Amino acid sequence: MTERLWAALAEVEDPEMPVNLVDLGVIYGVSERDGVVEVDLTFTAMGCPASEFILDDVRERLLREPGIDEVRVNVVWDPPWTTGRMTQAGRDALEAWGLAV
Fold first, then answer.
1. Tens-level pLDDT at each residue, the chain (101 residues)
2. Does domain 2-93 have CATH number 3.40.50.300?
3. Three-state DSSP class for 11?
4. How far apart are CA 44 and CA 101, in angstroms?
5. Judging by beta carbons within 10 Å of its beta carbon (0-12, 13-18, 19+), is residue 75 exposed, middle or buried?
6. Which residue in 69, 84, 86 sits closest to 22, CA to CA?
């Protein structure tokens, strides 16, 4: 079940960068119980101007999954995000846009 949720989250793009949230490394964990999904995520920086968009996109995408009735998003800051959390696909996407990582 969680593989399906991770795959759904990989469809959510960061609104400011050409990379999805999973490859960006901001999703720390996903779990599901009785139709309720809990997502632990962080942002690349405190005060991220796109944070509300990201939270809304995460909720909207997961609610489209069959059997999911509620999505709870927990914003966590520990451990802090670093570029080391990015996947190789995320690094490649940013480098293709001329952004060094």
1. 799 999 999 999 998 888 999 999 999 999 999 999 999 999 988 887 789 999 999 999 999 999 999 999 999 999 999 999 999 999 998 888 887 76
2. no
3. coil
4. 13
5. middle
6. 86
Q: Rounded CA gap, 8 and 61, in Å? A: 7
Residue with tokens 């997961």: 62
Pairing of strands 36-41, 27-33: antiparallel
- Decide if 5 contacts 15 (C-beta within 8 A): no
Which positions ≥6 away from 4 have C-beta within 8 Å?
A: 65
Q: What backbone torsions phi and psi does residue 11 show, to the nearest 5 degrees?
A: -90, -10
